[in-house]
């Protein structure tokens, strides 16, 4: 009997600025990959939700939109944010409006220095920095709790309350240990600020110690977030998998992206580890309106994003080949301007497709 073709259906949401450009590039490379591989099939459905549709209709996600997304195995997301819509509106009404109902509680951000690219750290070479940051994605400092009183008065007070629940912290730290376990070094660093914040952060430390008992094969240590920034810069080789709160990991992952050389490289996965809902995969960069429509956006972050998505869908071999092709292309010097090259989005995309032909 003919071998059955594994099928995966992908929802794509390019959204704003360079989002649609890099998603188009990602879909082109994924189609190429699936046809060369021949053992799996990818179906794409495009959703044209963006700040443009919001300005016309008052909605980012139309009625019934989440139910449509729910039918897919994964979501490939571009970037949201437009100059004439406040960030907190676009973010909460599109990205978080998907992350929260779909319980994508683990936000995972790998970073490394690609061959052919340079870190701003003088002594760091490709291979010296290879991290995965696991970020809490549903609560913490971004829970949206708090309020303001006496607006505009000199005695105005604003509170921004962090929410940490044992349920969410435990499942996240467990996920981080599992992530660390799958990597060669099996090493996790738990980041908190438990010397200064004595409730939520102390609970994080306690839960980490409890969960670690189920992972005898994973080594782990603890860092305060301030000391962690120094360690990332001064001793990048000493780190592997890192877990932190919503706010702390947000900041640490921007630092990580900068240390790896460009924001145009790195991906983010928003996982619902229970697999009840589709997980969402996106480049970490934003909509970059300064370069939108010019054909110069770096598609590499989206290619790495596509590779992470393939791993989640069980296509590890194809994911690996995609990354090998991408790195071969950057090494050969086919790079966009953010990586010091002069190639455009299309050139890089075509070079990756050509490299895939060679690898397969
Ligand atoms: P957001 O608030 O959505 O994070 P932002 O404006 O803060 O958006 P980005 O949109 O990521 O941040 O842009 C930051 C800078 O990085 C810009 O100068 C942009 O041109 C550049 N940049 C971002 N993504 C890319 C990319 N894929 N290729 C090349 N340059 C990029
Ligand atoms: Mg930004």
TrEMBL record:
SUPFAM superfamilies associated with the record: Isocitrate/Isopropylmalate dehydrogenase-like
Cited Pfam families: Iso_dh
Sorted UniProt keywords: Magnesium, Manganese, Metal-binding, NAD, Oxidoreductase
Cofactor annotation: Mg(2+); Mn(2+)
SMART domains to which the protein is assigned, alphabetical: Iso_dh (SM01329)
Residue ranges of domain Isopropylmalate dehydrogenase-like in the record: 9-352
Coiled-coil residues: none
Enzyme class: oxidoreductase
Catalysed reaction equations from the record: (R)-malate + NAD(+) = pyruvate + CO2 + NADH
GO molecular function, one term: D-malate dehydrogenase (decarboxylating) (NAD+) activity
The enzyme's E.C. designation: 1.1.1.83
Gene3D superfamilies with a match to the protein in the record: Isopropylmalate Dehydrogenase
Family that this chain belongs to: Belongs to the isocitrate and isopropylmalate dehydrogenases family.
Protein name: D-malate dehydrogenase (decarboxylating)
Lineage: Eukaryota, Fungi, Dikarya, Ascomycota, Pezizomycotina
């Amino acid at each position: 009997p003919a071998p059955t073709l594994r099928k995966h259906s992908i929802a794509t949401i390019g959204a704003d600025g360079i989002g649609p450009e890099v998603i188009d590039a990602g879909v082109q490379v994924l189609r190429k990959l699936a046809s060369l591989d021949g053992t799996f099939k990818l179906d794409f459905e495009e959703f044209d939700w963006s700040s443009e549709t919001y300005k016309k209709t008052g909605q980012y996600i139309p009625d019934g939109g989440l139910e449509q997304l729910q039918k897919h195995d994964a979501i490939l997301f571009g970037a949201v944010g437009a100059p004439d819509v406040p960030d907190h509106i676009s973010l909460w009404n599109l990205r978080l409006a998907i992350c929260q109902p779909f319980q994508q509680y683990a936000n995972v951000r790998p970073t490394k220095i690609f061959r052919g690219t340079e870190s701003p750290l003088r002594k760091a070479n490709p291979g010296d920095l290879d991290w995965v940051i696991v970020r809490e994605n549903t609560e913490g400092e971004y829970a949206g709790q708090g309020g303001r009183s006496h607006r505009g008065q000199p005695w105005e007070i604003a509170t921004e309350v962090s929410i940490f629940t044992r349920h969410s912290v435990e499942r996240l730290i467990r996920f981080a240990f599992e992530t660390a376990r799958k990597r060669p070094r099996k090493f996790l660093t738990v980041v908190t600020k438990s010397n200064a914040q004595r409730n939520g952060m102390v609970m994080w430390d306690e839960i980490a110690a409890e969960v670690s008992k189920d992972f005898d094969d994973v080594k782990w240590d603890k860092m305060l977030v301030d000391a962690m920034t120094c360690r990332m810069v001064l001793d990048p080789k000493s780190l592997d998998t890192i877990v932190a709160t919503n706010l702390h990991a947000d900041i640490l992952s921007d630092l990580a992206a900068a240390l790896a050389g460009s924001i145009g490289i790195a991906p983010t996965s928003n996982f619902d580890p229970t697999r009840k809902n589709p997980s969402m995969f996106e480049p970490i960069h934003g909509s970059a309106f300064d370069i939108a429509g010019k054909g110069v956006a770096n598609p590499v972050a989206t290619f790495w994003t596509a590779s992470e998505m393939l791993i989640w869908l069980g296509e590890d071999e194809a994911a690996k080949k995609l990354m090998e092709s991408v790195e071969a292309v950057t090494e050969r010097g086919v790079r966009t301007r953010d990586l010091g090259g002069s190639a455009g989005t299309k050139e890089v995309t075509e070079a990756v497709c050509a490299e895939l032909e060679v690898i397969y």
